[in-house]
Each structure stands twice: as C-alpha cells, then as structure tokens.
Amino acid sequence: MIIIFTDLDGTLLDSERYSYEPALEALKEISVHHIPLVIVSSKTKKEIEFIRNDLENDHPFVSENGGGIFIPDGYFPFPVDCSGLTERYLVIESGIPYTRLTEFFDGIAREHALPVRGFHSLSLEEISGITGLSINLSAMAKEREYDEPFLFNGDHAQWKMLEKLTESEGFTLTRGGKFNHLSGTHNKGTAVRTLITLYRRLHPEALIAGLGDAANDLPFLRMVDYPVLLPKADGTYEPGVDISKLHRASQPGPAGWSRAVLELISRERYLP
Questions:
Q1: Based on the domain organization, do 168 and 219 belong to the same domain?
Q2: Host H or E run for residue 254
C-alpha cells in the first residue's frame, strides 16, 4: 500500500500556469492502483476543492499550510476526533482565526513601518497579476481561514524584526514561493502527522510518501517514509535541507512530480 501526500504549486502544479498536464501519466497510475493522493497546500479550501473536483479526487486534504484538515464524512471506518462537522467533511482545525492574523499584521505594519503587504489588502486584480490566477480563482484564494500570505520587500534586519514580533505573539512566519506566510504554530507537518496516524490504523505497513518543493513543505516531508524534494523552476533546490532518506527529483513541477511518482509506484512490493 502506498499513500501520497503532495504540495500543489511548483510540485503537482506548474508554478506559472497551474497546470498538472505533464503529470497525467502518473495520475492515471495512481488511479489504477487506488493510491490515496492527499493534497497538502497553502491554498484555501475553495481552491483545493476546485482542483480536487478537476482531478476527481475524493481523499482528505490539508488547507492553508496545515490550518485545516478536511476528511470526507465516512472516509475512515472509525470515529475521528474533530473540531466540527460540515455537510461534507469532518474538520480538524489547528489554525488561528484569520481576523486575528490580519489585525495583528496591520498593527505591526503601521507601528513599525515594515515593508509588507498582506493578502487581505490586495485587490483581486493585484492577486491575479502576481499569481497568474484568473479573477475567479483569485477570489477563491481570498477566502482564507487560517493563514495570511504576504509580500515582503525589506532587508534582513527588517525580516528579523518581523520574526521577533510574530514570535512574541505566538505566531509563525514561513517562507513560501510567491508569498511568505503568517500563521499560528501549526504547519503542514502537524497536519500530515495527524492524517498519517489515521491511515496507519487502516494500513500499518503502508509506505507513506511526500512531495514538495519549498520551505513550507519541509515539515511534512520530515513526517513521511519516502520524502521527495523537487527543484524550483530555475533548477535549484530549497537550501539547507537535512532530511533523512531524501530523494531529489530531477525536474521541477509536474514533470518531475510525475517521474518521481512513477519511480515510487514501480516498487511493486508496496502495491496491492
């Protein structure tokens, strides 16, 4: 049994066009072998649902860098401790309410004149221009619950000040791709650890794999048996990565993702 946790932007999705087309061969093999594919992203619930629908994916997913875990109701054949139940999901929340993050962010930006812009203060047109998303997808990206992406245009000293201020409040800074992120103490790793515990109850011998490309993916890559780090679009890897048994993909984006997944699936002893 193989279970795959994956980042989206720069990993399963191309970082410019947000396309997974080069990964279609691997996605087909995942479907043929009934391998759970769990999305772990900084994207919002609405954005991930849009992509899951396109992929015909019905597995759990993690939104906003671990702030929310969404498990389809009835997915696990045993009770799951959760924060709440919606029409479709059991929800496990570990994120700080979004309004607390934005109020704090605006306050320190004003008081300390830091060169930052929070996602909540950007227009849909600005988000679309920075990310390349359509206006419709930019609107989905604005519907945040646990994590505030932001732009930073300062020097090292200003970044250190920002780190100190956020840590004193019990918040966390994470460097991402196009945006940095302000959140609570949760991360992708804490969310994936929760899901791994649930999956292990069903499949104790499963090989747990994870694929990502950025600093905010490292916490969950440390949780899996088979971590795969993809290079960024320029061919470089996230620096300073020290993860046991790390595999480095040879190509960035969905092409590298596909090749890494196909190599993983070729290990037939893990398949049913």
A1: no
A2: helix 253-265
